[in-house]
Design goal:
single chain; alpha/beta; Rossmann fold; 13-stranded mixed β-sheet; 9 helices; about 20% strand; globular
Length: about 325
């Protein structure tokens, strides 16, 4: 199936990219005007009494944002904070009003990422198109003292204390063009203005994130788990409906598996026949995909749980920044 992303990671002067450049210029003009409207106060920015941490990116596609948000929620809790999370609920039905997510919610209703966050953080999670309204709902009905916005770097109505931009070390910014000629939501120079740029997969960078495999979990029986080195089959079907499926496939290959890849669009809502391959090989998928397949999964289906590792330098700088904002807001 044709996809614009097929051209985003090719040379900048690829013919299809050149054809789309006028639309990118128009998009750039819209970005510039929008920034100006906020700067002069034509559109109001809504600030809150607690620190708001934005975790997002300037490019379309997987950058490791969800694993980092899960790590961040656990880290903040270990530092004595009570975090809450807001998200748009991408992949689910558009929520005109804020909605409190539980791990039992259907991914087709609230989105796969929201279910994953509720399941893995035990934090209150509120979704909604309007993140300002979602934060208001979160603060009115929970005791959280810091808010994490899953995505929303470009949602400027929501005031923020800290901005974190995620970058995939392998794909980086593709052809460095703005949408639709390239994968960028904003120009690369936007990164100069954020508080932290985190490089997923670059261990040489002082602010880096690494995603490490933890264990395989059966979709049919969540108590049935297996260390990756002990998984009995080496030839497997690999299913991924994420921003960068090849990254998951390469991770499995690096673990010694012979991979039969099955790539789907990001946030794809699976149907039973799409993970039925009529053979005896096990089916391995991401945990993000598993939340959408659990109701009809067979005994052959497993997901890989992962652990996010963050550099010590980033942890230290993050707490310095957050404590500074927290102290200033109390004055």
């Amino acid at each position: 199936m044709f996809s614009l992303s097929d051209f985003w990671y090719r040379p900048s002067f690829y013919p299809a990219t050149l054809f789309l450049l006028p639309f990118s210029w128009l998009f750039s003009l819209c970005i510039t005007l929008r920034h100006w409207f906020y700067k002069v106060g034509l559109i109001k920015v809504h600030d809150f009494s607690v620190p708001v941490i934005i975790v997002g990116n300037i490019s379309v596609g997987g950058t490791g944002k969800t694993p980092f948000v899960i790590w961040l929620a656990d880290f903040l809790r270990s530092q004595g904070y009570s975090p809450g999370i807001v998200s748009r609920g991408v992949g689910g039905k558009k929520q005109s009003k804020p909605y409190h997510v539980t791990f039992n919610d259907c991914a087709s209703l609230v989105g796969d990422e929201a279910v994953l966050l509720a399941k893995n953080t035990q934090c209150p999670v509120v979704i909604g198109i309007d993140r300002v309204a979602a934060v208001r709902e979160l603060l009115a009905n929970t005791k959280c003292d810091v808010v994490i916005s899953d995505d929303g770097l470009q949602h400027y109505r929501l005031g923020r204390s800290i901005e974190i931009a995620m970058v995939d070390h392998v794909r980086k910014f593709g052809n460095e063009r703005l949408l639709p000629a390239g994968p960028l939501r904003e120009p690369i120079k936007r990164l100069v203005k954020v508080d932290f740029v985190i490089y997923n997969g670059d261990k040489n960078h002082p602010h880096h994130l690494s995603i490490e495999p933890h264990e395989f979990v059966s979709l049919k029986n969540q108590t049935q788990k297996c260390h990756p080195n002990e998984f009995p089959n080496k030839k497997i079907h690999a299913v991924a409906g994420i921003g960068h499926p090849e990254k998951f496939f390469n991770l499995l290959r690096a673990m010694g598996f012979e991979v039969i890849p099955h790539a789907f669009p990001d946030h794809h809502l699976f149907r039973p026949h799409e993970i039925n391959f009529n053979d005896a090989y096990p089916i391995l998928m991401t945990e993000k995909d598993a939340v959408k397949c659990q109701s009809f999964a067979s005994e052959s289906c497993w997901y890989l749980s992962v652990t996010a590792k963050v550099s010590d330098a980033l942890q230290l700088k993050l707490m310095e920044k957050l404590n500074h904002h927290h102290s200033r807001d109390r004055l």
